[in-house]
Every structure is written in C-alpha cells, then in structure tokens.
User: Fold KAD8 kinase from Anseranas semipalmata.
Amino acid sequence: KIPNALWANLIQERLSNVDCIKQGWILEGFPENQEQAWMLQSSGIIPRHVVVLYAADTVLIERNGGKRLDPFTEEVYHTTFDWPSDPLIQQRLVKPEDLSEQEMSKKLLEYHRNFPGVFQIYQKVLKSVNADQPCMDV
Assistant:
C-alpha cells in the first residue's frame, strides 16, 4: 500500500501540470477514505464536482463476474455490456484473477466502511448517479 501522504503528493504534482490546469482533471477511485480526502484538501486539491455511481451490492458482484481483460491492450470488456466484435480479441480475453466474488465482497465491505466520511467531506459538490440502468442513461 502507498501511504496517503505520498498519494497526495503524487496527485498534487500531476495536477500541477499544464494539461490539468488548462483542461481539468478526473480522479477515478480516489480518495478511498476520509483521511485521503483530507490529505487532498490540505494539499489544495479541491474538486468542483464529485460523481458517485451507485448500485446494489448484488448488482455490482454480478457485473464483476462478467468482466474480461485483453492481456495485450489491457482493455476491459464485459460479457453482457461491452463484448468486442472481433473474434481474435474475443479469443484472447481472460477473466481477471483478482475479481473473485470473495474479493469483490471484501472491497464492498471496505467501501461501505469508508465512504460515509468521504461523502461528508464532499457533500456540497457530490452528485450520486444510479448505475443500475442502461449505460446511455447513466
């Protein structure tokens, strides 16, 4: 695990680059807990918008089972929602090793434990979107 202070420094350094200053930035999957959110804020990294996609745990676990990875391009596909049309790509897709139902349950437990604190910090700029609907609607 990378210490929170190091994460904050790395992100602060990256977001100070010209492209981020001119075009903006998106952080995906970070911060994961209240401490990381405070570290970002104390580093001067304050998002204007925070978007949280939510769905029932059962839906997330089920969707997780359909993920497939192209080991050459590292593109992520899904057996139901985003299957590649190219048969060569289809043949080389593999199921990610770290995405067992047990691993997913652990991640969800950690999420439910940590995110109330993150929501509290970003409540004024937070927008929750129901992800249990067609992609185009999300």
Summary: Helices lie at 4-15, 18-23, 34-42, 57-64, 87-92, 101-121.
